[in-house]
Design a protein that fits this description.
Radius of gyration: 22 Å
Shape: globular
Largest sheet: 5 strands, parallel
Mean pLDDT: 81
Strand order of the largest sheet: 2-1-3-4-5
Helix content: 40-55%
Low-confidence stretches: 14-46
Strand content: 5-15%
Distance between the termini: 41 Å
């Protein structure tokens, strides 16, 4: 019998004992007391998905990147411009932000600088994912505070791998 099965059996026995004591004493037992701490931690880890904010004015790119990340196991929030992104950031702090450079109004590099000025997102990893792969754009993006800059198009597994890597790095 493997360790996981032994753990389940052990906690089942504990639960039966505690439930029996509960029935005798008439006091209620919290549900979480019936779940092994290891099982509870594993359940929380599986239920907790990293939240990624994607900002791109092209609806096709926004949808495609969103699908790639959702299939990779991430929760995705989408914004079509800097104003929408800043509104989302008022209510939530994502675990990672992906920005396009070329957007109407405030571009992705300017948005990155604004993100770095905010206390809540000061250490949030920022990935610039753009069709502009020229040296000047890359330098501007990195100087604005981006953690990485990747040129489009990008393959599904490359994007998911890059995002996972960036989330595992210390801030």
């Amino acid at each position: 019998m493997d360790k996981a099965s032994q753990e389940v059996l052990r906690w089942s026995a504990v639960a039966r004992t505690e439930i029996g004591a509960t029935l005798i004493s008439g006091k209620s037992l919290p549900e979480r007391a019936l779940i092994s701490p290891r099982v509870r931690a594993d359940r929380n880890r599986r239920c907790m998905k990293n939240m990624i904010l994607i900002v791109d004015d092209e609806i096709g790119a926004l949808t495609l990147i969103g699908i790639m990340l959702e299939r990779g196991g991430f929760d995705v929030f989408k914004a079509r411009n800097a104003a929408e992104a800043l509104q989302i950031l008022e209510d939530a702090t994502p675990d990672l932000i992906i920005l396009d450079v070329m957007m109407p109004g405030m571009d992705g590099i300017e948005l990155c600088a604004v993100i770095r000025e905010r206390e809540a997102t000061l250490h949030t990893p920022v990935l610039i994912l753009s069709a502009r792969g020229d040296a000047e754009s890359i330098i501007r993006g990195m100087e604005a505070g981006a953690n990485d800059y990747i040129a489009k198009p990008i393959l599904h597994h490359d994007l998911v791998s890059k995002v996972r890597h960036m989330l595992s790095e210390p801030a």
